[in-house]
Specification:
- This protein has about 130 residues and is mainly beta.
- Strands 2, 3, 5, 6 and 8 form a five-stranded antiparallel sheet that branches.
Amino acid sequence: MKKIRNIILALLLSLLIISPTTVLAASYSNLPFSFVVDLIGITRYYDAGNINVTCSSSQTTNGYVPASTTFTISLYKDGFLFDTLIGSITAKRSGTSSGGWTNMASGDYYFRFQKHNDGCTCSGTISVTQ
């Protein structure tokens, strides 16, 4: 009986090893953000390919006059000594915006949100798909 059990376990392990596996691309939905001037997001790993973002945002003026109706979302590749700016997109302070970067190498990346120092707060959610 023990020998049969060992054979079955060996077969199951062999099937598990040789069966194809599915690798899911990194996707993050509705990640919240809120900032007045500058915000650096969490560093995350992305596979090679495209990185696309959709951002829904709103602005609170806090009694100030907005200097602009937009803010910038920049994508950086995290490096050992220095980080590399991949590119930036312009997003609406109030509304939905989307953009992306193509043919990215796999690695660790993070987003940086920036706007004028006008006292207004920009907040919302960002979804990242690959």
